[in-house]
Every structure is written in structure tokens, then in C-alpha cells.
Design brief:
- The chain is mainly alpha-helical and 75 residues long.
- It is 83% helix and 0% strand.
- The chain has three helices and no strands.
- The chain is flat and about 40 Å long.
- It starts with a helix and ends in a 7-residue tail after the last helix.
Length: 75
């Protein structure tokens, strides 16, 4: 249950990041939100961690495949 609370706080912090105009507050919120999300994922059950990892790998793979197929010639 504590992992869910930490994940919600982390995502809420990222919502604040996009609503903040001041750079100092934005950077501070981004760093603290990242730390809270990592902490929440570390406390999450193994099945949830595996789902997040699989989704992350698939997202990174699709971005890399799109970059390789964009047609830039490096001659």
C-alpha cells in the first residue's frame, strides 16, 4: 500500500512540474518526483515491477526502431 501512495505522490509531483513557471521550483520538483517514483517502484510488488519494466523496454525499442527507419543517410 505504501508503494501506491509513493507512486501517486510522485506522479502528482510531475503534474506540478508542468504547471510551474519558475525554473528552480521545476528542477526541484522534477528531482524529488523522480526520487519518490523510484522509491515507490522499489517498494512495489514484483509483478508490478515486471510490467513496468516490460512496458519501458517496449517503449524504448519502438523509439529506437523509429530512429533507425527515419531515412537519414550518414554518408
Amino acid at each position: 500500500m505504501s508503494s501506491l501512495i509513493l507512486l501517486l505522490i510522485g506522479f502528482g509531483t510531475f503534474v506540478l512540474v508542468f504547471n510551474t513557471k519558475d525554473e528552480i521550483h521545476r528542477i526541484t520538483a522534477m528531482i524529488s518526483g523522480t526520487i519518490i517514483l523510484i522509491w515507490g517502484l522499489a517498494l512495489a510488488p514484483l509483478a508490478f515491477q515486471l510490467i513496468i519494466e516490460i512496458v519501458s523496454v517496449l517503449a524504448a525499442f519502438s523509439v529506437c526502431m523509429r530512429c533507425l527507419g527515419c531515412g537519414f543517410n550518414r554518408d
